[in-house]
Amino acid sequence: MEYIEINGEYFVVHDDETDPNGEPLMVPISQEEYEANT
Amino acid sequence: MGIVYNRRTTGLFENGAAQKGDNTNFGGYTTRTVSGDYLSNGRSLYMSNTGARGSTTIGSQYIPVDTSKVYQLAYSVKTVTQSYNNRNGSGHLGYACYDENKSFIDLRSLRHYGFTTLTRAASPGDTTIYVADASGWSTSTSTHQRIFQLFPTGHSLYSAANYYTQFKTGNNGYPSNGLTDLGGGEWSITLNSGLPDWGYTDANGEYPIGTNVGNGRAGGTYNYAMGAPVYPQTWTTYSATCTGEGRSSGSQFRYMTKFIRFMNLRNYNYRTETGGNAALYVMDNLFFGEIPSTSDTLPTSFLQSDRFR
After folding, report:
1. Residue from the list B104, B171, B221 with its beta carbon closest to the beta carbon of A25
2. CA–CA dist B265, B238 (Å, integer)
3. Any idea where the domains of chain B sit in the sequence?
């Protein structure tokens, strides 16, 4: 599980769960959650 | 205001109010018949998995949509059992977008960043691609921001005009230092692997000068139209208006969307709290239906009523 920021938006990237194309799930989160985990 | 009754159910979700008496189309749930824990038909869809901590559930049904029309999406939810540490149910609510072939539409496939043209013809296998301007292409260290997209000329679905292509490399299509300004209105892009053969070259076996290309980038996987609420212990309805197309992870449809499917990230908000059972919740009167305009949304009084059939 990786916390990333892209152009002012915050996401969790899940290596343990994929989308229908087999790509890691990316879920938007709040800036507060991002900052609490990075 | 007219209410659209489609197919055998209210709105376009088949079994969105557990009318069938089971969990048809909603395999991530069971059903629940406790009084007060359903809104209609004597039954609701029940997230009864005490181990669900953020996992995605996608509905089985592909619902056809016309993105030029206006739809309301509404899910009514209620926590029935708190988690071991007194958390309510929670998680993202929304939908997933699919094209006319029922292929999932990922943001990586959409035209938005670094849109430009080939300045020299490119052939399958090439590792250096020449374009007019790569100044807007990502140099991020994240591999999912560095994808090479190609929008062929004349393809009925994958085209610059449609803002959509499946002709793209995988993540890490080019290195973060793979962009070079050659001057004179030309850049080179060094690919990490040879340009794929998508079977859509011209008579010379090339993608000709002027072919549109772009920089695909990942973002929010699904359309999280109603955000990521914590579900109260009383019935609460979350609603969004869906219309038009864009590079969207919100309520707006993605480019070239022809079908959608229900989506919920179950208990996502408290996914890291693993000391005991996760919260359990019910969903009912799942509604997706055409409305006359964005000003004509159905009221909560109807969406939480027992009139869903």
Report:
1. B221
2. 15
3. 5-105+221-303, 107-219
Q: B274 touching A, CB under 8 A?
A: no
Q: Are B230 and B269 in contact (CB under 8 A)?
A: yes
Q: Do A4 and B142 touch (CB under 8 A)?
A: yes
The CATH number assigned to the domain with range B5-105+221-303 reads: 2.60.120.260
The predicted-structure confidence for B128-148, as pLDDT tens digits, reads as follows 999 999 999 999 999 999 999
Question: Residue B5's beta-bridge partner residues?
Answer: B10
First to last CA, chain B: 19
Nearest chain A residue to B57 by CA: give it: A19
Q: ipTM value, please give it.
A: 0.96
Nearest to B104 among A9, A17, A19 (CB): A19
Q: How far apart are CA B78 and CA B287, in angstroms?
A: 16
pTM of structure: 0.95
Q: How confident is the model at residue B93 (pLDDT cuts 50, 70, 90)?
A: very high
| Probe site for chain A from B221, B259, B262, B263 (most A CB atoms < 10 A) | B221
Please name the residue ranges forming H helices in B130-233: none
Q: Is B220 in contact with A26 (Cβ distance < 8 A)?
A: yes
Confidence check: pLDDT of B1 > 80: no
